Amino acid sequence: MKINTRWLIKRDHHEVFGIDAKSFGQYAWSEDDFLLCLRQNNCIGIVAEDTTNGKILGFMIYTLEQSSINLLTV
Known about the structure:
The chain is an alpha+beta fold. The chain is built from 2 helices and 4 strands, in the order βααβββ.
């Protein structure tokens, strides 16, 4: 298996929502939470992808502030 990290893009949303729901259950972000966050200029999403089949294995979302990085979810 070869894993690549890259920016989270719109076509990844369904898989990312599923991973978050399985990981956090009732505390998972809603789809609206993801979309509101990712629409902000300082909010960044990264995915880990299996390059052999294109499956998303994990993700993280963080915000870049002037002097810090805030990890929001992994």
